[in-house]
Amino acid sequence: MSTSVEREKFQRMLEAFAYIAQCCSHKSNLYNVLKVFYLADKLHMERHGRFIFNERYAAMKKGPVPSDAYNLMKAIRRNENLPFDLISPVTYEGNHEIVAKREFDDSLFSDSDLECIDEIVEVSKTQDLGELSHDNAWKNCMRNGQHFMPEQEIIGILHNADLLLNLQENRFQ
Fold this sequence. Notes:
Layout: H1 3-23, H2 30-48, E1 57-60, E2 63-66, H3 67-77, E3 90-93, E4 97-100, H4 111-124, H5 129-133, H6 136-143, E5 148-149, H7 151-155, H8 161-170
Antiparallel strand pairs: 1-2, 1-5, 3-4
Helix pairs in contact: 2-4
């Protein structure tokens, strides 16, 4: 992955932290924010044929965890330098709370990205995202002892899995 693409990926994650923390103040803890990543990624793939965050999801005890986003948040919590000298738009406070320091930059997201994130944030008001993230893709990886969840495993549980898997396999051909 080129440096500029990698930098944009991390910038998008940071901006997503700020956006989710602003929209989800009722549940702006680290775990809920990371669940929004996974569920919004799945929803966007199902509807639009691509993931929002291009993350690798680890199958952890409490559900899927976006690996780079989690590591980025750990760096913020420890006040470490962020990749590419990026500046965090959020702080990590108290009991795993993510607090936005400024408005997020929406120029890094498409309308469909924000629609899917918004939909999952809305779902979080009435449902437990932890339970929703414990889907068959996660269960299969846990059962098989796989640390990272292959994209094919995640896509395979979606309604239009065959079409999406074909799209992923032929995307750059």
